[in-house]
Amino acid sequence: MSDQDDTDQMNGADSLVQTLLDSGLDTCFTNPGTSEMHFVAALDHVPGMRSILVLQEGVATGAADGYYRMAGKPACTLLHLGPGLANGLSNLHNAKKAGSGVVNIVGEHAVTHIELDAPLTSDIEGIARPVSHWVHTSMSAADVGADAARAVQAANVAPGQVATLMLPSDTAWNGGGAVAPALEPAERPAFEAAALEEAVAALSGPDSLLLLGGAALSAEMLELAGRIAAKTGCKLLSEWANARQERGAGRVVVNRVPYPIDQALETLAPFKRIVLLGARAPIGFFAYPNKPAILTAEGTQITNLCTTAQDIAGALEALCGNVGAADTPPAHVAEAATPDKPSGPLEPGGIAQALARTIPEDAIIIDEAITTGRAFFPATAGAPKHTWVNNCGGSIGYGMPVAIGAAVACPDRKVMALIGDGSAMYTVQALWTMAREGLDITIVIFANRVYKILRGELTNVGVSNAGPKAMDMLSLDQPTLEFAQMAKSMGVEATQVTDCEALELAIETGLAHKGPYLIEAVM
């Protein structure tokens, strides 16, 4: 049989899987249905793709987000028609805001079946567009391979993009598929060279700020920022939520602009000049009555030197050189520090101490602790070197899925997922996948049994007369959620703690355990 005959026998699904592999994409988080069965079969025909089953599509999309943040390359999701994609939209929103590259493969009805308006028929492209940078539907088996290569190319556009490819079932099962060669992504655009002179002039003294985000928070880039701060006297801050930040002893400490609006306004008030490097100008998370949406002081000079999609490394190197800091030792380098052993009931300060004492070298910390977690950053600055991952889109239920992706991408590193109880219930199915895959994740659920952040927001938006009905909408008891029991039912070892001493011991036990381990911290 000739090579051409082999090609003629290849269906669209086989060409899709092989093209994805040839384009460097070898991990797929799946929740398939009938229209995706030929893709499922192709995973057997074409070796090399790791396929990880999840029980809800938001887990698949969140896991792909976490994978990209740690691996630096996309994974794909396999989702079932419009409703399956819709279930994953929340974490695709978060992935898009984080600048994560994701390739979604979404099954569609056969082209001839769409016109019949079957029950699962929907406008899949319309559902995909708000959370995708690139959207396309393959129209024949011959197109699938080339479309897949373009999807991966789009996902790799800096800093990372969401690409969604619809695959009608007949394009998957029909013959005539062809493997397409990998396509090179576009290079990062240059930083704003015209703004460099203005940025150099702006960074002078403690009333100036270098605000960092994106790739500027790698260990190497933070060292350059520390040199600039030492030379110019400027202050360093990062955005409130960052896709990935390197932290710990020996690295330059960069604190975040606070989330609570009053604290953010107070933090930013002293700065007359701000240079943005991979960050946006600070704005409020929400609008509040009688409070400004723009968080910088009136009259603040803001220089946008480099966006997160541009050449951040080139911008920092140029800025460091132009302020004469290339040979200056960096400022704000964290010293190794181990706080005192905490004791007593669980509260944010004591929990932060326990974390600082237990974070292992090279750990990955997934932070969705929301209110409880606000105390964690200062206390953990001197912990062993680690990576800190935040929710950049604000849609809760991201933490445990992102932990899955991080653990798959970095199987040799410990992953710690710090999750609020309200957030955990959005994607609690993630525990099952952790157990099935034997992923090395220690999960701490902070069970205060309320939507505590919303109780604070009730006051922030000016509500002063909330009664029992309003408060009941912000509570998570009646009945009480039992996370240790839920975890055990899905094959995850678990324990419940109620004080700081027990929490520290449980974290140490979880980190020593091979595989997932859940700690329910009842507050």
Automatic annotation (TrEMBL):
Domain Thiamine pyrophosphate enzyme TPP-binding intervals: 384-520
SUPFAM superfamilies for this protein: Thiamin diphosphate-binding fold (THDP-binding)
EC number: 2.2.1.6
Gene Ontology molecular function: acetolactate synthase activity; flavin adenine dinucleotide binding; magnesium ion binding; thiamine pyrophosphate binding
Gene3D superfamilies: 3.40.50.970
Domain annotation Thiamine pyrophosphate enzyme N-terminal TPP-binding: ranges: 10-115
Pfam families: TPP_enzyme_C, TPP_enzyme_N
A biological-process GO annotation: small molecule metabolic process
Listed InterPro entries: THDP-binding (IPR029061), Thiamin_PyroP_enz_TPP-bd_dom (IPR012001), TPP-bd_CS (IPR000399), TPP_enz (IPR045229), TPP_enzyme_TPP-bd (IPR011766)
Keywords for this protein: Thiamine pyrophosphate, Transferase
Entry similarity comment: Belongs to the TPP enzyme family.
Record-given protein name: Acetolactate synthase large subunit IlvX
Organism listed in the record: Sulfitobacter pontiacus
